[in-house]
Amino acid sequence: MSGYYHEAKQKYAGIGVDTEAAIARLSAVPISIHCWQGDDVGGFENGGRALSGGIQATGNYPGKARCPKELMMDFAKAISLIPGKHRINLHASYAVFDGEPVDRDALLPEHFAAWMAFAKEHGLGLDFNPTFFSHPMVKENLTLASPDEEVRAFWVRHGIATRRIASAMAQATGSPALHNIWIADGFKDVPADRIGPRKRLKKSLDEIYAEELPGVIDCVESKLFGIGLESYTVGSGEFYLAYASGRPGVYNLLDNGHYHPTEAVSDKIASLLAFFDKLPLHVTRPVRWDSDHVVLLDDELKEIAKEIVRNDALDKALIGLDYFDASINRIAAWVIGVRNMQKALLLALLTPWDALRAMQDSYQFTDLMACQETLKTLPFGAVWETFCERMGVPHDDQWLKEVKAYEADVLAKR
Ligand code: RNT
Ligand code: ZN
């Protein structure tokens, strides 16, 4: 045990926090790592389709993955530098076809067999997303809410197909798979009818969820607006929260880029935990808008982690990351974001919540403020270092060397 850690351990013990318990708890928290950081949300259909749906990856850093094999290699490199056992979050647009490709409404579990094998090889769980964007059947920015029955039915078939694939993924990995529906459906300018599209979306969801499937955790992801869809979003916060409340087994996913810039998702977590036994999250970093910057160890991330930990919700929160920065090394982007999520959780685990709660409940607000401020300068870094050592991954100042070597050996040759 390094002297640095020994001292930190004593310091935390002094405020009633057991650093060993915190390390042990953190090592068992899986993060669902989004595959789409590795190729700027391109996917593999037709060699990768132009990104649409009101989201945008900006930047042109060299070396992005161009095929399943490269994406898997890059992902494997990233997780070798991330402590713990995690999950890979896939999109339907990442299907791997052995023979003839099929369209999205005809996808089958076998089209994800390569990913299931990859997950098993690396001990990863799998999560899944239907892809309702970057496709010619998106007509006038509408899918499940389309007034065109042919379009709506195509996308309903897609949702039905992807739930079956998620179920197969759960079976293959022995761990339930999150199936997350996000659609960009909306209008650039002021609509004449706000309820029609929402009624059609409700009908589509009912059709998609009609089948009982083992191992699938269903969720819906709301949004405020997308680029080119500024005036109206069919799947709004209220819409999906109401839908999930009325449909047991469907959960409301919170993406912290999908609210007004002054709204804090951390503040919404406890409200949902009071009503739902699971809370799926997309952790991202919106900079002035839903920009999906790499997750940093900033105040909102820390606050999100605190809400999860102090509400005893580490087993209820399904923590997924969702960002895509094409302007920096994509493997580094994964490593930085996941390690930051873990750091935020560790900080929360190193906090004497019972004592702080008692201060609040006995109106000792001066003590509460002083104590919360004192916590901010405790030697958290020493505990993090020890966690990394025990999990067999490099320290913060060491992993980038490995990414740079991989960049020179592999990425630069693409
Ligand atoms: C878009 C949503 C959605 C996507 C991914 C690729 O605003 O956040 O979750 O980022 O499905
Ligand atoms: Zn998201």
Q: How would you describe the overall organization of this protein?
A:
Helix content is 42%, strand content 11%. The chain has 414 residues and is of the alpha/beta class. Strand 2 (87-91), helix 4 and strand 3 form a beta-alpha-beta unit. It starts with a helix and ends in a 5-residue tail after the last helix. The model has no long low-confidence stretch (mean pLDDT 97).
Topology:
Layout lengths: L2 H12 L4 H9 L4 E3 L33 H12 L7 E5 L21 H10 L2 E5 L19 H25 L3 E5 L4 E2 L7 H14 L7 E6 L10 E2 L3 H9 L4 E6 L10 H8 L5 E5 L15 H12 L6 E5 L8 H20 L3 H9 L3 H11 L4 H11 L8 H11 L5
Helix pairs in contact: 1-13, 2-10, 3-10, 5-6, 8-9, 9-10
Bound molecules: L-rhamnitol and zinc ion (ZN).
The site of zinc ion has 4 residues, from loops.
Total DSSP helices: 14
N-to-C CA distance = 43 Å
Parts with pLDDT < 50 across at least 5 consecutive residues = none
The gyration radius over C-alpha positions equals: 22 Å
- Overall pLDDT metric: 97
Widest β-sheet, arrangement of strands: 4-6-8-9-10
Short summary:
This protein has 414 residues and is α/β, with parallel strands linked by helices. It is built from 14 helices and 10 strands. Strands 4-6-8-9-10 form a 5-stranded parallel sheet. Strands 1-2-3 form a 3-stranded parallel sheet.
Task: Provide tags for this entry.
10 strands, 14 helices, 414 residues, three-stranded parallel β-sheet, alpha/beta, binds zinc ion, binds L-rhamnitol
